[in-house]
Structures are given as structure tokens and as C-alpha cells.
Amino acid sequence: MSDQSPTPFAEQLAACWRMGRTGRSAEALAESRRLYGLVQDAEDGPGMAECLTQIAWFCLQLGLADEGIDCAVAAKELWSQHGRTHGHANASAIYSWLLVEMGLVDEGFAEAETAMRLAEMQPDQGMLAFAMNAKAIALMYCRQDQLAVPLLERCLELVAGFDLPSERSLYLTNLAYSQVSMAEAAESRGDMAEGRRLRELAIVNNDRAIVAADGCGDSWSLRTALCNGAEYHVLTGNIALARTYLARWEAVAGAVGLRERIHYIYTSAELLTHAGQLAEALALSEEAVALAADNANADHKANTIRRLAEVHEALGNFEQALGLYKQFHIAYQRQMGDVTRRRAQLVEMQLQTRKLQARAAVFEEQAGQDALTGLPNRRRFDAAIEALRGSRFCLGILDLDHFKAVNDSYSHLVGDAVLRRAAELLNGLGWGMRAFRLGGEEFALLFPDLDIEPAAAVAEAVREAFSRANWSDLGPGLRVTASIGLAAAGRGMEQAEIMAIADRRLYRAKAQGRDRLVASDALEELDLLA
């Protein structure tokens, strides 16, 4: 699902991912952790990002949300540093889902929006579907199923023409879940016919999810859909059929994660409750409560206590049931407190990230290299121009046209990619020219040992290279041009003087309509006289 890294570890990473996609999540998690150590030693940034993304996904499957969140955040940062929009979208979608799992629905929804914006910049429809699914999950958790269902239907349309059975299973499972929630809402309004129609539709879609997961060997998706199917049939009174779904669940090969185990146990307890086997239901419900106590999932702790209370109520143990309902209320309050605590931790994590970025900026300045573009920075420029004092040289100030509009229309991530691409163009042109990043979208071009006319010829070639370059792979319809002001160093001229002349001519290039070079003050002087 992520960018395939140009790395010696690419085949091992792909094999690890296939392992996870066929339900061997515990093995895949161990393998991805091992691979992370190797790519870290090799200083393989994209490989590290891919490993961290995989670890986050396997943690989600296995119910290890805390570790998953840490890895997803680190993966996003690495993908961004390496300009990999596809990988960043993937990590953001997984991060969104993990946030929702921990009860941070608002933050999860916002992150899913980010994932969708990133995915929309790529041609990969499967990635867009996965990001859209993350947004639908956030909506499902806050009971906005009428908004989630169209998104999930769109996910299925996006992957319809591709061989992606595991993804189809995931989206069908979530669609069925939302349809059941809508059925419950319809029945609470007294519209029993609509509720029955939605439940029947959900069962059909969930069965399609089972077929898709079984066909591709995705045992994690298969177990989820089988448990959900059993629950749907229990709620429609078809206990015998629900038992066959749980029997199939037990026959699925592979290690079972804590998240899956809890789901299976409380579904089994619900079946036994409806079947009148209350003693067995009680034992399973108590086991589910004990397991959920060690799980970070926002719903499991409270819901398992509630279901245990319902079993005691069915047994006539009203005092125990009342006590458990009180525990449910306390657990719900604690869950809200946990959400507040986790939100505070998330804010602190983001603050630490910003501090680290600020520290990195200091180191970058000290090192004399711009971290984003790899070009020499303003510190190195000042030293270079000082070294040229008293010699023959020209200075160009290049500014990307309408760069703010790029950030506003395509996102700052695309803006960063444009700056990196601009640096690659400047480095690739050569011609005795030295390029520096002064800051923002502004670059300096130094032409040692050149007079104004040959320097102008090179600067014009630079401008044309920007104008001719294909930028559309960074964003649909994106076009980037540059304006340049060029000045020649006069005898005894200070740095501030030559920069002022180049800046004035850059301003003239902008005023004349941009995408042009100005290397003379003649036109300006005429305008001033006029």
C-alpha cells in the first residue's frame, strides 16, 4: 500500500507486507520490527518509513494502538522529508484509524481529511479508496452512518476495476457495519420495514466481504467479517446460522490478535445469551471484560462490562447487573478521561516534534545546508559572495512566481516538493553557476568570472528550463515559472549594494508580468522619468 522504496530491502519489505495481508499479522509485525533495525543501520530513509508504516498497520490489526500511533507519526515525518506523497497518505490513513480506535474521533477525522488530500494528488485510486475508508471509519464511530455509507460505496467503485480483494473485503465489511447501525436507527424511529431491509442488505454485503477475504487468504479481514456476520444473524434471530459463522472463525488458520479475540468472545457471549445458554454466556463475558482491561481500544472496556451486565440481568441477578451498569458508567467516564489524556499526549507529541524541527533548523543553519532542498543556505551564500569581493561576478535573485497560490491550492506538501524540484533543476543546469536557497521561494544564483551578457544568457536558460519543465506529476495542472533579477558586481561594490540592484530588477520582472529575466535598469529609468 505504500511507496516501494528503491532499496536493497524492497523485496523483504514487500514479502513482509504480503505476510500481513494474508492474516499472519503477528509474524509480520515481528519481521517488520527486525527489518526496521536493518534499514535504520543502512540509513535508508524511505525503507525506514515503509517499515514504520507496516508496523503501524500490524499494530492496528493486533490491538496495539499505542505503539501503532508512535510508528505512524514517525512514518509520516519520514515520508514527508523524502517527498513521498503516496507513502505519507498511507501512513496518515492508518494514523487516522488508530486515533479513532483510541477514542480521538475528531483528530482521526481531521487526519483522514489530510490523507484524502494527499491521496488525491496521486494517480493511485486504491490509495484514495483507503484514505476515504479512514474518513468513513471516523464517521461510523460518531454515528454519522448516513455520511459514511456513500464514502464506502465510493471506495468500492474506486477498486472495482483492480485486483484488490483484500481492500474490497475491508470496505464491504465496513459498509455492512454502517448499514446495521442505520437499521438500528430506523427501528428506533419505528420504521421496522426499513430496518429489516437494511439488515438484509448488510448481511449480503458482509457475505461478499467473507468471500473476498477467503479468496485471497486475508484471515484478519475474514475473522472480522465472520464475527460481524454471526452478530447480524443473532440480531435477526437466526442462531443456528450464527453458530456456523463462529465455527468458521475458529477454523481460520493463523495467530489471533487481542483485538480479534475480544471481538470473538463477546460475539459468542451475545449468541449464547440469545440462545438462553446464560451460564456459558456469563463465563465468556467475564473473560471478555478481563481481556479488554489490557486493551487500548476505546469501546472494548466499556462495552464488555455492559454486555456482562446484560447477561446478569437476563439471569435475574439484578443486584450484580446494577453494580455492573454502575461500573459501565464509571468505565465510560474513565474512557472520556482517557480520551482527554490521550489528546493532551498528542498535543505534547506535536509540540515535541515542533521543538525538534526548530532544533534541526538551528543545526541546518550552522551546517550551512538547507535541509529541504539540499542547496547551500543563506549562511553559505554570504560566505561565497564575500569570497568574491573585488573580483568579476554577477548575482541573480530568482523567485518562483505565484508560489503562495501553489501552497493554497495544492497544499504545503506540494509546495515543498516544488522547492525540491526547483533545487534539482538549478543543480542540474551547471554552466558554472552556483545556486543557493535564501529562504522561502527565493534563490540566489552566483556567476563567478562572468560579465553581465554571458551571465544573462545563462540566467535566461534557467528561466526557460523552469517554464518548460513538467510539474504536473506533483499536482494536476500545476505549472511553475520563475522571475529573475540579475546584476553585475561593480568595483568596490558591497554585498548589500549588488543585492539591492538584483532585487530591484527582480521586482521589475514581476511588474512586467513574471516569467522573465531583467538584467538592465534602462527600462526602469524610462519609467521613472515618465
Secondary-structure element pattern, one letter each: HHHHHHHHHHHHHHHHHEHHEEHEHEH
If you compute it from the alpha carbons, what radius of gyration comes out, rounded to the nearest whole angstrom?
A: 30 Å
Name of the top-level CATH class of the domain at 378-529: Alpha Beta
Figure out the total of helices: 22
Beta-strand residue fraction: 5-15%
Please describe what this structure looks like.
Pfam families: GGDEF, TPR_12. This is diguanylate cyclase. It is built from 22 helices and five strands. The protein has helices spanning 10-21, 25-41, 45-62, 65-81, 85-101, 105-120, 125-141, 145-159, 165-188, 192-216, 219-235, 239-251, 258-274, 278-292, 300-315, 318-367, 378-387, 403-410, 412-429, 452-468, 495-511, 522-529; strands at residues 393-400, 434-439, 442-448, 482-488, 517-518. α3 (45-62) runs antiparallel to α4 (65-81), α6 packs antiparallel against α7 (125-141) and α13 packs parallel to α15. The protein has a five-stranded mixed sheet, sandwiched between helices. Residues 1-5 and 524-530 have low confidence and may be disordered. A hairpin with a 2-residue loop joins β2 (434-439) and β3 (442-448). The radius of gyration is 30 Å and the shape is elongated. It starts with 9 loop residues before the first helix and ends with a helix. Among the domains are: 9-142, Alpha Horseshoe (Serine Threonine Protein Phosphatase 5, Tetratricopeptide repeat), CATH 1.25.40.10; 272-340; 378-529, 2-Layer Sandwich (Alpha-Beta Plaits). The relative contact order is 0.06. The protein is mainly alpha-helical.
